[in-house]
Design a protein that fits this description.
The complex is a heterodimer. Chain A is mostly helical. Chain A is built from 20 helices and no strands. The termini of chain B are close together. Classes of the chains: A mainly alpha, B mainly beta. The interface between A and B is large, with 111 and 116 residues. Chain B: Belongs to the WD repeat peroxin-7 family.
Chain lengths: 513, 318
Amino acid sequence: MANDSQNSASEMAKIVDDGGHEVKGETADEPSSKPIHVIREPVRDEQVLNAVKFLSHPKVRGSPVIYRRSFLEKKGLTKEEIDEAFRRVPDPPSSVAAVEPTTTNQAVQEKSSGTLQPQVANQVSQQTPFASATTSLRQSRFHWSMALFVVGLAASGAGTAVLFKKKIVPKLKAWIRKVVAEENDLKFNKISKSNIAEEAAEAAKAAASAAAAVAIASQELLNAKNEERKYFEAFTRMLDVQVEEMKSMGNAIRKLEITRREFSEDKGIQEYMQSQSWKGTTNNPWRTNQVKQATSNFNSGSKHLEVNGSPDMDSGIAKPLTTPASVEPPHPKSYMEIIEMIQRGEKPPNIKPWEVTQQAEQRLSYGRHSQANGQGLNSEVRETNSQPNGSHSNGSEPWWRKKTIKISEVEPESEEQFYDAMRGNASPMKRGWVPPQPPTLLLPEAADAIRQLKPSIQKQQSVDETLTVGSSNGEDLDAKASDSTIEPEMSGSTGMDFSQAKDQEREVSVEIN
Amino acid sequence: MPVFKTPFSGYAVRFSPFYEGRLLVATSQNFGILGNGRLHVLDLLPSPGAPGISEVAAFDTADGVYDCCWSESHDSLAVSAVADGSLKLWDASLPPSANPVRSFREHSREAHSVDWNPVRRDSFLSASWDDSLKLWTLDRPASLRTFREHSYCVYSVSWSPRHADVFASASGDRTVRVWDVREPVSTLVIPAHDHEILSCDWNKYDECCLATASVDKTIRVWDIRATRAPLANLAGHGYAVRRIRFSPHRESVLLSCSYDMTVCMWDYRAEDALIARYDHHTEFAVGIDMSVLVEGLIASTGWDEVVYVWQHGTDPRA
């Protein structure tokens, strides 16, 4: 128990000493600290004396030497001092007692200086006279209880200080901070709330604008795509047209060679060729020529190419026609489709391979009918009107009936009279090509000759004519038919022109057949 | 006003000189590019309450029909110019199995126009893209005469209403030629336009007056005695003028149809020449005719496969 207390006291003392060391450093006011500081290194007598006192304590004497030594070391004694103390221990403690009041005072001071609080030091200093009055034995105990008490106080004080320092202050600080933070938070919240609303609005606006931008962008993309598609389609159309042109050009060139050969052989025709520039593709087989002719009028952008093509090309295609309108008349869609189909080589649907059977029964009576009915035509027109036309008839006379007009003599009834009058000749009853005087007649002699032809000569010549013509056609015609025909060649007396025409016709018919 | 829907694209229309309400319509499949053709004989229904057009007969051809005309000598006969170069004679009074009555095949290229001699009434002319015109008569299977002077396709031929042997032809070589059948060569050459001439027609009242219609969108009226400059230059169409017809009833009135889908009526002697414009067609208007028997009755057809018959001054679509 005593050991324990001693130990605890020694421990406490150690603690105090430790604290005292610190305090010593801090409190420069205490006069005792200075000299201790200075005298630390050399052998300090006070220390030795204290150590002797300590060692002379009966309890200490009972403890092992090691403990004594460690205690003294812990006290801060140097080894020499400790040795000195151990040497002196067997020495009489009186010298120690003499120096006791000072040493105890100093020890107490020492010990008291270990306290953090000067109050304790005061208390201790007050207690020291009381402590010095007592006996040595009682002093030590008193010291130790005093020390214990002081230490306890100090400890409690330290503890509280520490506690205070470590826990309560931070808590206070935290609390203060919290309060401040709350205030800040409040402020922040207020600001942030308004901020949030604004931010939300802004965000919404931004989102909307972003969406709009995206929509615009996507629409532009679509438009661009559409345009691209249009361009692409236009481009492909142009390409198709180009291909079509090329094909037709090839065809035309081939045909041109053929026709040129033919034409060069045929002299009679060449005489009548008035302008060579137009010579060309008369035999273009392909209907696209029609299309091109017809559509070159339209001046479609694609046809422009062929129209403005090189003049040495097939004139049927590359006619030097600068089309008047720079605008293309809108073709029906299906029209272009059909053309394209044909260019591709496909036939448009629904075409019947219709072969028209030629009725070989010659309705020769037609010719006679025309003669016979010539007189009675008028009667047919109005009287044989099997179609009642109530809604549409205005009852006006046909134009060739009107008597108020110059050409009233064209009436069929008076027609014969007209002819007779003009002819001035009693010609046969047949209505042949013996005509009245035309306004512009290049060869009046021919007209006279025609009028003055005798029937016999006419017949003969007509027979000749029919024979020649018939031979070329492989037919036999009867004279009656020939009589009723309207052949200018019948009057061949003027010769040259008509024979030429005859020849031409024969040639032509031969060529065609 | 009655409308008739044809299965194929219309190409020409003609009033019958015998019957007031009878029409002939030439049509071609696939706009005439390739395919069959059909010739319709139509009748205008008389009932005033419900005007309509009915089909009397229809004749199919192996190739498209570009033009047609009635015979002036027989009330049921008609001639068609077929795209395969042949001319077919049809008799509307006969069943389709007996038709065509004749087939005249001499042209080496498409036959584009036919016209029947209104004075002599026994012959007809054909114009073809082989640069030639041919004169035919009913009882001769071969042509009587070939007129080859043009250097390009002959688009149109028209007999003079006044003189039995005179006719005019319009060609793609930009000239109009006046011929006399009795002459070996053409009587007159008029370089009428700077572009292809698609149609020509004589004035029914003025024997020296000839009108031409061209790709240059104008119609020019000429006096054949003085051909340096036209009597009138009628502009107003948006595109090439396809066909013109002088009115059989009014001296200076002519009708025209164009690729601008309109049918226009002009008075070339008037200050403001355009009298009327009908834009009832929704495609190229290519065929027109004015009735001889009924004053003011107009018929038109086009690539929109309809035939309209209406009275001048009224709305064809009404």
